[in-house]
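S., here's the first fold you wanted:
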Amino acid sequence: MSDIKRVTRDDSATEQQGTKEKFWYGEHKDKLCKFGKVHGENWAELIAYLLATQLDIPCARYQPAIYTEQDRESIKCVVSESFINRSKGERLINANELLAKYERSYEPSEIYKQRKYTFSGAVGLFKVIGLCNGLQGYTPIQQFIGYLLFDILIANQDRHHENWGFVSSSKPLYLAPTFDHGASMACRILEKERVSRMQSADKGY
């Protein structure tokens, strides 16, 4: 893990996607500063990144950071460098965009309780897209299944259709590295509930 970065909002650009406060900054607007809704989301993001690295899972890189603003208390956050090379014309195509393209009745703006967002539908994307690459020597399907197994390992609750996707470039599409793991490892619940769940004989709990 690298040293803690210092971040300010000077010359920044707002990131609209998602529910957490975040913004792009830096000379090329290629660094994303993100604030966890609760204190645990920051460390969850960092630990998930380190675990993914050890497991050889393609993953967006995260660093601990401190956001500072004049006359305000410093705020802990995380920083992630963009895996999109905009200078080469690359862009991220979220899964919901493609699912809506190939399934007419699919509602791309409906993140939660989206009944048509299924495992078979997601896997079917790889078939209809055709030529597509994976990262780090994986096929796209291997990489995608790796994401789902990783979600199980870290108890990630947030693999909705805007939290994975493909990168478009001059070459064939490739499956983007996994990103946004702030809702993992039970970081949002209090210690009392965490202990209760670990000790419960109720499998549903």
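And the second, which I think is the more interesting of the pair:
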Amino acid sequence: MEDNDDFRFYIKDNLKAFFNIIEAENGKKGWQKALAQHPNLVVSDISMPEMNGNDLCLKIKSDKRTSHIPVILLTALTGEDQQLKGLETGASDYLTKPFNFEILQSKIRNILSQQEYMRKTYQKQVDVSPTEMAVDSPDELFIKKVLVLIDSNISNPNFSVEELSNEVFVSRYTLYKKILAMTGKTPNELVRSMRLKRAVQLLETGHLTISQICHKVGFKSQKYFVRTFKSEYNTIPSRYLESLSEEIMDE
């Protein structure tokens, strides 16, 4: 976001070869676009009409619909106090104008790489144990609540993404963007993945039939359960069960 048309064009011209750019000429419109389009990162000047960059960053970081979006602040103001003020709003980084565009590109790439690493970390935590994730940041609290809700409704075949979004008080669109950013899965994929992982756990206990497991993990149709299981694990549940028996016999 930048209110100076020439400088905004200059920024866009230097970044458009590497990134998809969404423009806004002031902080208020920048907030509206951040809320509507959920960009992967925001670069904003501090000095803007209607809503300055610090206030914009604070708004982005304090709203659970957008708190996961990193922000880089730009300013012509110098001094550690100004920089500290910007960082205290939750900004990921800070650049004083004039600056080298290669440095800006590098900072953007570094932040996006860290975001991707975070997404993969969340995904691993989901794969290993959804209910044992450490709680720290607002995003961790958010995904923790999502995972607990899915886990507690794992046997409910009627548990929907709409119900999930209502439980965490965000729109379906916001839920989609935040879960995709944190886990690499859509909400439906995440629910299905957790159902299948629970199915694997139940298969490994050896105490239930495939039909019983199908209903325990919230699949209405055994045919759909088998097809989805095969898509995820490249084998059908009965064959997976046989392979477990073979491993026990080999031991």
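Why I say that: The chain has two domains: 5-115, 129-250. Residues 101-128 form the longest helix (28 residues).

Talk tomorrow,
H.
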